[in-house]
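Annex B, item 7. Sequence and structure tokens for protein A, then protein B.
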Amino acid sequence: MSQIVVGGLGPGTERLVPETSLIILRNHPTFLRTRRHPCAHLFNAAESFDDLYDSSDSLENVYAAIVETLVSEAIRLGTIGYLVPGSPLVAEHTVELLRMQAKVAVEVIPSVSFLDLAWERLQVDPMAKRVTIVNGQNFEKEAAGLTGSVLVAQCDNRFVLSDIKLSINVDKPPMVTVLQRLGLDDESVFEVNWEELDREVNPDHLTCLWISDLPASMTTDALAQLHNVVGRLRRECPWDQEQTHHSLISGLLEEAREVVEAIEVMETQAAGSVGLVEELGDLLFHIVLQCAIGEEEGTFDLADVAREIHGKMVRRHPHIFDRDPDTPMPSKKQLAEQWKAIKAAEKNQA
């Protein structure tokens, strides 16, 4: 039966590249999942699948194409090698897919993963701490309901970090330890405040996060899900990728106009709210997309916008948030004057 021998490249440093992986390369036609690894130069004789990442529209399609090619080559050649970053037993979806193939035998040879280095740097025994490992790309779903110690892998871009940040809504969010490029000369391990997670961290494909005590309260609300969808569109959809703050102006104005029209139709024709909900959703999409562009530029994000309007509404409503209960509510005229005075004071302070 045709066979695929799977090995790993280790976590990044040459001294942890398994000798078994070098033997695979010497003994069999060998393929690399990607050359995006610090030790890929040791395997220049192997063909990689990097072209699939550039030409496919989703990772699922990339993984399916890799597995299809590997199975086909194994049937043609008899036995081939397949090498992946880190360990083939940790966060390697292509290995899971290969094991489901009935046409070939799959031998998996374990190797050191980034997890081993992470436990050493953190001085943590994962069993003693009962650590849960989750995928940063799907943090909101995988971490829902979890508490305690969590290691978050595959935090390779700011959208992932922003999604993680938005998923927790507590008064005192935890500190986060960032681990990057473990074992390499430019290794970095540092702490960051939760609110600064997507600002202070410059993520790459060798970035993971340690949360020593994940709070019990996690939001899985619709707004966080929308933020996640918009982030994926910016990464994968050609139209969304090319948009800028300025290019969206006409669409933003059009959506605002359609919201007004939906309100007028609802009031004049006694129509239901379905139309208004749809148009408000279109307008909200534009707002979240503007925030996504701000995230990429490192200037602002959705949380900044929410905090800004929250602070403004509290400041401009002292009769609600800072009123002596024994003081009577101001009149509408007094409220209008108060609003103007507070707004003018804000402009003078800007």
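Protein B:
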Amino acid sequence: MAELTPLLRTEHLTMRFGGVVANDDINFTLQEMELRCLIGPNGAGKSTFFKSLTGQQTPTSGTIAFRGLPITGRLPHEIARMGIGIKTQVPNVFNGLTVRENIWLSARRKTTSQSLSAAVRGVLDLIRLTPQADRTVATLSHGQRQWVEIGMVLAAEPHLILLDEPAAGMTDEETLLTADIIRDINLSRAIVVVEHDMAFIRLIAKTVTVFHQGRVLIEDTVDKVLADQRVRDVYLGKKVAA
């Protein structure tokens, strides 16, 4: 039986900045509808990897394929149109507009006018902000602002969503709700999450990829990864919660 084409695949992906190797020969495969967590200490190469996937940087060597189509070196807007969306660490929202207006602006690029209102309502429900739909984004909590941006990414209907530290700075309650939101989104599309919070990783992860010094150190189930002594040794020198 022929192997199914993965949603995303990188082969020998390498990024050099002068004498510094930020990503070193990374082979990474993500299947359709998969939820993958990407962890590692600061400087491990996670952000550089995301920037290569979204076209913000062009790798020095290696290839990136999305549903079998080469995307290495494509421009960010071309990659976005192909179906890769990203939420960065800092919310990129329109503070002076309402939650609904933010989602509408994103949804209108992909949704016909006849179904636009329904699409916006669906996103608002998914990000748990229907009661706050007509509030100005500037008046929301930090966690709610993060959910607005997740909603804006989702409204553009990507096949793959990249989330960079989505739970950073959140309260415990917001963190739990964010995990629920991510699990719900994963019912309809693939997600890669970069995160430092091990408790949050345990809430959502099945498979975890660990970066260290620009390379993949280990890739396995969340329990095996977090029990691995190498991970404990390199992860910021912190004890990984058992």
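Comment on protein B: The two ends are 40 Å apart (CA to CA).
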